[in-house]
Write a structure and sequence with these properties.
The strands form 4 sheets. This protein has a 6-stranded antiparallel β-sheet with strand order 2-1-11-10-7-8, with no helix packed on it. About 5% of the residues have low confidence. It is mostly beta strands and about 260 residues long.
């Protein structure tokens, strides 16, 4: 995962870079913010090789992640919204640059596209999965493939499609949050959290993106196949001693036959 930051949405404190280790949050004169470990801690965010883990201090109540209550521990991902102690926090990927290449028609891969799925994690689509086996129009229109409604949602809000081994967000009528960052178009990767409007949250699930510098190779054709080895005579595979014995036996048999006559 790229570098992660924690944004204090009231703007009273600078964003907090979540370096590897434990980050303690508590009450400060500017509201909920970073505190020393020996201060009164309300939340702890731990960044380790497993990801980002949030621990709620004993006795702390009213903590929500994406509108769902958390009592003890929760694993977080980029794009999560945290409400605690009257403050709103946003976890976002700081250097997640997903600029689309020049507009070219994506190469369709029906079998591969079946492996890319949007899973709802918030809003009316929570728990549902939508395959990207074909382009999906998102918006409030009755004909939309993914129909969502609410403040700021246009009739034709955005287009999601899979092609060239990846998923793409195109033609957004308003900013869409991808891992907590507002974009109008972007390349999407497996694990990305995508938010339309306020409550419509989805996670993209599918195969990981190919490593840089790797290319997908097609199956070799008959013209590319190496030439078949030349056919050998049956005698080439027989040991010479066995061959000599066979010839000698044939000669003796012929001698006996003609001698008997």
């Amino acid at each position: 995962m790229n570098d992660l930051h924690l944004r204090f949405c009231d703007g009273r404190q600078p964003d907090l870079a979540l370096e590897p280790g434990v980050h303690a949050l508590g009450r400060t004169p500017a509201g909920l913010g970073p505190v020393e470990a020996d201060a009164q801690v309300l939340l702890q965010l731990c960044n380790d090789r497993r990801g980002i883990w949030m621990t709620v201090n004993e006795g702390m109540r009213g903590v929500h992640v994406n509108g769902r209550p958390v009592q003890q521990v929760a694993m977080l991902r980029a794009g999560d919204s945290i409400h605690a102690d009257g403050s709103e926090l946003l976890l976002y990927a700081a250097n997640d640059d997903r600029v689309l290449p020049p507009s070219t028609p994506p190469v369709r891969d029906p079998a591969g596209n079946l492996r890319m799925v949007l899973r709802g994690v918030g809003g009316p689509y929570h728990g549902r999965c939508i395959s990207l086996d074909r382009p999906r129009r998102v918006g409030s229109a009755a004909a939309a493939d993914l129909r969502i409604e609410g403040a700021g949602i246009a009739a034709e809000h955005a287009l999601l499609e899979a092609g060239n081994g990846q998923a793409l967000l195109r033609h957004a009528a308003a900013e869409v949050l991808v891992n907590g960052r507002p974009v109008r178009q972007a390349i999407l990767h497996s694990g990305d959290q995508i938010v339309f409007g306020v409550q419509h949250r989805f996670v993209l699930e599918g195969p990981p993106p190919p490593a840089p510098g790797t290319a997908t190779t097609a199956a070799p054709s008959e013209a590319d196949a190496p030439p078949a080895p030349p056919r050998r005579r049956w005698t080439q595979g027989v040991p010479w001693l066995l061959l000599a014995a066979l010839l000698l036996a044939a000669a003796l048999t012929a001698l006996l036959v003609f001698g008997a006559r």
